[in-house]
Specification:
196 residues, alpha+beta, two-stranded antiparallel sheet, 1 helix, 20 strands
Length: 196
Amino acid sequence: MSARPARTGRVRDAVCGAILSALCLGAASAAAQAEAAPAPANATANAYGNGWSCDSGFRRVGDACQRINVPENAYLSDRSYGRGWECAHGFRRSADACEAVPVPENGYLDSSGSAWACDRGYVAHGRDCAMIDVPENGFLTDTGRGRGWACERGYRAVGSACQAIKLPPNAHLNHFGHGWECNRPYRKVGASCVTR
């Protein structure tokens, strides 16, 4: 019966020792924070007293806060990496500056604001927007790639023209309208439709 109270006493002593140790460490940590160096110019102490952070527009360099040099036509980026600034819409980075994006006639700034695209009916040709020459029986497409035009149903592109599709007897235009298929029960052999 006497072993039980001794064991309880050892557990109590261990728990009390752990609590006292935590209290002492906490007091030492608070004392160390109180003695820590104050925040440098253009910085703010962290809420819990465990250091400091540079104010907006400044970046930490060693134990100081250095001003971020933002060029004309740029803004601060709130990122802790990189330059710390981005060019405004309509401008793009050139070394440590922001230069206007040159937009050609019949062009516009794209959604990024750092590049341009051509108006509908025009295609990029070097630094210009050239008019798309749509052939007879053709129409403009909405894609910014390729020729910028397609042939109407019943015609196919041959070079820079739209040529009528010649249907052999017992044939019809295919689903896309730019080729042909044989009617049933005929089958395609070369350029004609023959019975099986």
